[in-house]
Give the backbone structure.
Amino acid sequence: MQAPEFWAKDGLLPKLLSPLGLAYHLAGVLRRARATPWQAPVPVICIGNLVAGGAGKTPVALSLLAILQAQGLNPAALTRGYGGGEAGPLQVRPGSHDAAAVGDEALLLAEAAPTWVARDRAAGAQAAAAAGANVIIMDDGFQNPSLKKDLSLLVVDGAYGFGNGHVIPAGPLRERPSGGLARADAVVLIGDGPGRSDLGAVGDTVPILKASLTATDDMLAGRRVFAFAGIGRPEKFFQTLRDLGAELAGVEAFADHQPYDSITLERLRLKAKAFDAALVTTAKDAVRLGPEAPRDITVLDVILAWDDKDALLRLLERLPFNTARTRG
């Protein structure tokens, strides 16, 4: 789905929908209260958020995979596989699986480390550990109580924060911030902006790790582009292009995880041609274009840069790496 515009600001509609938001919130509380999480034999790091999509979880997961690999560990990624049809547990093979099978995020993660898709997170963690992983990075799943987390990082987009502050469907929140922040070990704040104020004084009780998304090169600076994206918050991508110095001749936003067919791509090409602009998209969208992105579509790659990487490393030092555990 694509986030409704009213999720970004308060108003009459969010207030009318707030009883449904309360029901959604209470259902989540009850689900977590009744669950008995399974403890994996290796540490599990959860990269989650409090809003529906668009915070930047996957770049954080990719960064952590690289950091752990640099420390000599053998991390594996675990994801539900949103947008894909496979239930799993299934190890993702980029050359054999496509986004329709395992989802776009799983394909990005699989380029960096062994990656497992599993709607049953506990079963996925068990499969990853059995295959040799000594630490698991779970992309999303903070609200899923089936698997015990050893470290939970909540990702917050500094520009968006918690939106209008209401729970789904009245707003973008998956749960009330007070409960989610109480279960978090740290907040990863990506970028700056008005969304920072939503955290209030949380830094007094939960560490805030600041980071930013940066492009891997400046090839689009000064270029005229037509941008398209099907991610949680397409406007975030469009603003990144502006910040890079690209001239946006036009944009088109799609629903998160939406697949692209040949008819849609041809229509986008015609629009770009009409504006005499280069066609540009995100790396997450690119994996939905086929095994290889068409050469006439430029893919903007971004990486996560930590303001204080040592603070993150101190959090990781708490984890029981290379320690065998019995099933909990």
